[in-house]
Amino acid sequence: MTETTPALPDYLHLTEQHRELLDQVLDKWSLHVLAALCEEEPLRFNELRRAIPVVTQKSLTAALRRLERNGMVERCVTSTRPVAVEYRITPLGQSLQDLIDALLRWTTSTLPAVERARAHFDHA
Amino acid sequence: MTETTPALPDYLHLTEQHRELLDQVLDKWSLHVLAALCEEEPLRFNELRRAIPVVTQKSLTAALRRLERNGMVERCVTSTRPVAVEYRITPLGQSLQDLIDALLRWTTSTLPAVERARAHFDHA
DNA sequence: CCGGATCCTCATGGATACTG
DNA sequence: CAGTATCCATGAGGATCCGG
Questions:
Q1: Residues B32, B59: contact at Cβ < 8 Å?
Q2: Of B5, B23, B69, which is closest to A121 when you measure between CB atoms?
Q3: Distance between CA atoms of A74 and B89, rounded to whole angstroms?
Q4: What is the pLDDT of residue A11?
Q5: Binary contact (A14, B103; C-beta < 8 A)
Q6: pTM for this structure?
Q7: CATH class for domain A15-123?
């Protein structure tokens, strides 16, 4: 009954499903969208566009669709003329937001050490 | 002195530096490398290759170089014939490992809800 | 105002072959 | 064994035009 390589509980096993979700939700523009919606909510499409530096509609639309599909943001259409579309964070998206906070805290605290490592590496 | 949009402490501001570091360190193969080195250490190049499903040398080499440059893994060359190269996690890499654990815990716990959201979205 | 549809390019990743 | 070099396919992302 002695296992040779237990080491890791199951939830730490990196499966394709885990990677796929992280990829869909932690990509470049998604991070910006979440950050923007965290500061102010709700935001309309063009407000988001202005809030995020140099994003194209295509990329922004794609990011919003991905986030919506994965249940991270909510898309509310008001059928006026012209239509108004508002984006909000869902509870699921809020839990992701907390994770991103942790990531940013980590980058902030380790960036100095990382830059030293880079300088040392690039020197050689 | 009342700020209109404080909301976020500075370390939660998503700068290009933060995004760059996360991109270099949380990419597909880096996650696998860290996971592999976490289970067993040290590992040689071809051992890593065998441990990681279907990675090519090119991708593995690139991932290892990036991780080494950012101070996450250590590369030790033993000048025998033929040469032996061993890879280890650094303390900095260990802190990253802890973060990845948190990410995987999050994906594990939210995956059911995410899949419901996907099903609902795809239904329409 | 909020996108969808197209076309294009350009970086990334895979496959293969070769080397110290 | 541990890579480097090369060629090539693929896909993300930008630019532009159009439609509800």
A1: no
A2: B69
A3: 40
A4: 62
A5: no
A6: 0.89
A7: mainly alpha
